[in-house]
Amino acid sequence: MNLIVCVDAKWGIGYKNELLVRIPSDQKFFRETTTGKVVVMGRKTLDSFPGGKPLKNRTNIVVTSNTNCEKRDEEIYVHSVEECLELLKDYNDEDIYIIGGASIYKQFLPYCKKALVTRVDREFSADTYFPNLDQDDEWEITSESEEQTYFDNTFEFLVYERK
Fold it and tell me: Residue 110 region, left (φ>0) first, then alpha (ψ -120 to 50), else beta?
């Protein structure tokens, strides 16, 4: 199982249920990486998408404790991590991506083998954070891109793998 996230210099990932920054090449990377795959998210992450609609051309699994969610045909709702993990047994582990938010990342991180991290070398106002993998002895960087710039944002793509 994998996760994919964009973090700032302090590992912030969001503010008021919105991304901290939108970088076209990061969004393209996310789209290309997850298209045709399984994405696991929390309900607030789903709500943050345009129109609250699931991502196209992906199997969208939404983890929520709310049993009264409006169910549509485009996504699958589960109500616990355990229920989600049971459902995920039907899919290839390498095709599963945890996409947020913070609570979902934290709950599924122990099950992930790889983390695709876009790290922006700038601190934004954030109210939501991802665990700092640089301070976690179980993770190591196995790949990093050249530094790139989008307006005044310098960033790089990093791959962390569980040791």
Answer: alpha
